[in-house]
Amino acid sequence: MTRDLDTDPYPAPDHEEPPAGSSPFRARLTLMLTAAIPVAVAATLLAGAIGRLDTALFFVGVPVLLAVVVGVMPSDDSGAQLFQVITVTLLLVSAFLHEGALCVLIVSPLVYGLAFGIWALVKAARSIGHRMALGGVVLLAALEGALPGTRINPVQEVSAERVVADDCAQFAEGLERGPAFDQEDRGWLLRLAQYPTPQSAEGTGLAVGDTWELAMPMGGISTVVRARADDTILFDVTADDARTTRWVTLQEGRLSWEQTDAGCRAEVAITFERDLDPAFWFGPVSDLFMTAGADAFLAGLD
To answer: Which residue ranges traverse the bilayer (predicted)?
Structure first.
């Protein structure tokens, strides 16, 4: 019996295959640590340094920049990478800016939507010309609020109305005492979001020049009666250091009432300046919360 000399009796062990999924994981981790997270942190610090954390330069520019960074890198699962990068970035930025979970939830649809929209366009764009054109559109969108005169409808007005009494004469007499706020009147949206609204009010009267102070959970709002008629009172906001100034700055309020068959119907209108851009997202969001706040204010008058 002869031994086959061409056969190695001690074959070398086969090379072990890396665990399934380890390469994509390492690629994503490398992308986040070396590109995406540094870009997000640097962009956030830059926006904060130039005072543009409340503009589209931050809310549009950062997610778009991340989408471009991820989109131009060769990868078979860049969509999953982008989702992870955006999620980590949202958590980091919220911690850096001391924002609560609600703020993150409100801005998340905007950030994810923009990021994946731009990512899809970047992946679809094949020529340099197309990518340059895309960059121009993104740049214009990101400049809203970052430069003087680039804000879109920053001053907004909301209103709410309800029957506050059987008789308007009775309602007018009660106004002298001021509103009595009850946390149960805030509605489900304000309670769920923990959106701050006035807790108490103290004033000197309702004649022109009289002042009222609205106490907020953090800070307060000072107002003065600018004009008074039989069924209308106009207030100017003279000072506002409440926490809501991170989102809106109150300017004036108007309270009016009329007798109807259902009773005395009052309406409150609040004019404010929206402090966040872009307008297409934060405009409706500001309207939603401020309308709920106006309704809660009226509830304190019935």
So the answer is: 29-50, 56-73, 104-122
